[in-house]
Amino acid sequence: MTFSVVLGQDGWNVTYTKNRICVLKGSSVELSCSYTYPSGHTVTTAFWFTELGTGVEPDSLGQDPEYSGRLEYHGDKKNGQSLKITDLGESDSAEYKFRFMTNQEGGKYMGSPGVTLSVTGLQVKVTGGHQDKTLTCSTTCTLTDNPTYIWYKNGHKVKEDTSSLYSDSFSDADRYSCAVKGHEDLHSPAVYVVLEMVPTSVSESESVTLTCRTKCTMDPIAAFIWYKNGQPIPNSNTYSLVYSLFSVSSEDTGRYSCAVEGHEDLPSGEETLTVRYGPRNTSVSVSPSGEIVEGSSVTLTCSSDANPPVDKYTWYKKNVASPKASGQSYSITNISSEDRGEYYCEARNIKGTETSIPVHINVMSVFPWVPVMGVGAVLTAGALLLTIYCTLKR
């Protein structure tokens, strides 16, 4: 339990029992506080409010027609006062404050900040594939007092747990909903939208059919909304149960779901579409790049985009018939001038093959330096000076 203490001056203060509350739509809540004031004062007016209004003083909730018949006051004007609000709706979400006045001049006080009330409904969210799904009993705020969740299958209780998650292998013929213990009459809407995708794995240029089925008859006939990776597909709204993808490409790979227009908060589970294609954008990188000195090493690496991934890489040297090596990387150690030339790789998977553009490997030769001896004579100051010189020649 949390406490919010609003301190005043000279004995004025308001203490709220809880400063944040999250409750279910359709339930009730009790806001409570205690307050003090200087001796010699007598409380004449005390009330709760949410807005300051247009006048000097805020308007009491009792004056708001939206709360008519839904307010119950408890306590007394001397020690404290609690307010019970029934039949809560999401529009009741607000910050509630307490105000009191006394019989003395200037004798009035407002407890601020107040109690933040959030009202939420229950919603079943579905994640996972066609076979194994996870249901989440979702709320827009964290419910107060750590509730216990109850799960229902076709209206019958099947699970009770403190976790809001329910994982299992679910049948598309069944309807699931959830509730919170103590508020079993406040069920979430049942999950009733199912996506069927045939097939779920295709090759490029093939077609796929997505069918959005409901567990009940929609009256009037409703439109369907289609999603890819959680985002609406542009211009995909249709009154047909079927959405077709013709001549698919790799860009169509993703997670698909559907929903009934007007019930977008209750989408179907997601189905993943996989598009298979042969290698493409195949290329070779060289490390180190540039000229390679004789005696050093170089590594060639082949990269390719493919689905399923490339299962075989083969290396070739231009104008040489037989392959040089296999594997995604090809290393040449103690390289010599004979290794100079153009190299390329071939990438292969079950859908096809692709060959990269050749890259040129330039091998720089290293020549030995040979010393050359020479003899010369120079006449200096009447003496013959014999000079031996040495040059390097390669």
Automatic annotation (TrEMBL):
Physiological role: Most highly expressed siglec (sialic acid-binding immunoglobulin-like lectin) on B-cells that plays a role in various aspects of B-cell biology including differentiation, antigen presentation, and trafficking to bone marrow. Binds to alpha 2,6-linked sialic acid residues of surface molecules such as CD22 itself, CD45 and IgM in a cis configuration. Can also bind to ligands on other cells as an adhesion molecule in a trans configuration.
Subunit field text: Predominantly monomer of isoform CD22-beta. Also found as heterodimer of isoform CD22-beta and a shorter isoform. Interacts with PTPN6/SHP-1, LYN, SYK, PIK3R1/PIK3R2 and PLCG1 upon phosphorylation. Interacts with GRB2, INPP5D and SHC1 upon phosphorylation. May form a complex with INPP5D/SHIP, GRB2 and SHC1.
Annotated TM spans: 366-392
Keyword Membrane annotated: yes
Gene Ontology cellular-component annotations: membrane
Listed GO biological process terms: cell-cell adhesion
This protein's name: B-cell receptor CD22
Pfam family, one: Ig_2
Domain of life (superkingdom): Eukaryota
Domain (Ig-like): residue spans on this chain: 113-180, 189-274, 279-362
Keyword annotations: Membrane, Transmembrane, Transmembrane helix
